Amino acid sequence: MKRNKWFFKTTLGVLFLAIVVVSCKKEDPDLEIGLASVTSIDVTDVKDSYCLAQGRVTMSEGSLLKAGFCWGTSINPVIENDSMLVLTNAESGTDFTSEILGLQGSSTYYIRAFGENEGGVSYGDNIVINTTREYNVTNVGPSGGYVFYKKEEYSDGWKYMEISTENIAGGSTYPWGCEGTAIVTSGTLGEGDINTEAIVDRCGAQVAGYIASNSVSGGFSGWYLPNIEEWEEVGKTLAPSQIEEIGLSTFWSSSEINATTAYYYNLNDTDKVAEVKTGKHGVRVIKKF
Asked: Do 37-130 and 146-288 fold alike per CATH?
């Protein structure tokens, strides 16, 4: 009987000790936690000052405090370099994507994802990119036209506008189209392409918007008819001699006034003029990039 009591007490003691040890392990703040595992997936849409980066939190012990990207012009950039926080409290298996702005044109950059938990900071592999050249107003653009507008940073997929250096269709003149029909166009900078699409949809062929939309200039397509605010920006930044061809100085804009009139732009006077839609003027095209 005494032997059984001894065995019972000993067993209870061992169980109690095991519970205490396990409990201490769980609550011990000094236990080492492994680093998060992160992957640099891809970097796309590389421009002169912009790119789009994608990463993934593959695994993280404990709580992931943050994840994002870091970049620099030397290999193995760290968060003390340029970096961007994208996620907080992300779970394992989470993908994250972010735009990276403020890069320098014509430069090589190393970009990698990072993750940070209680164990420290870990990094994905380096992805190497080469940014495109930066353009300034009056430079020749990638499609052979003159750059006439430049934003601070990329937004909505573009930063620059360029205007073709040649008259479309050999300098022929065309009506605006849609006489008697209001199609509601925008005069906001950057929306001439939307106007041009509306003209093409509503006004048929052999009108200024249709000719612009189907034009090829400098060996490139994708041009459109500028709205009046875009024409006014051309007038502010480029001399008429840079874009005017002999015998033609008035060009339609894609900005409608009402069902019967629209604006054309006079390069010599650098001014907009209201004209009936049946009037004929030249076609000069622009594009965003």
From this structure: no
End-to-end CA distance of the chain: 93
d(CA 203, CA 201): 6
Tokens found for residue 22: 């396990």
Residue 239 above 90 pLDDT?
no
- CA 243 to chain CA centroid, Å, is 29
Poorest-pLDDT segment among 5-19, 79-93, 118-132, 141-155: 5-19
Q: What is the pLDDT of residue 61?
A: 72
Domain residue ranges in the chain: 37-130, 146-288
Rounded Cα distance, 264 and 271, in Å: 9
Between CA 287 and CA 142 the distance in angstroms is 10
CATH number of 37-130: 2.60.40.10
Q: Domain 146-288 classified CATH 3.30.70?
A: no
Alpha carbon 132 to chain centroid, angstroms? 14
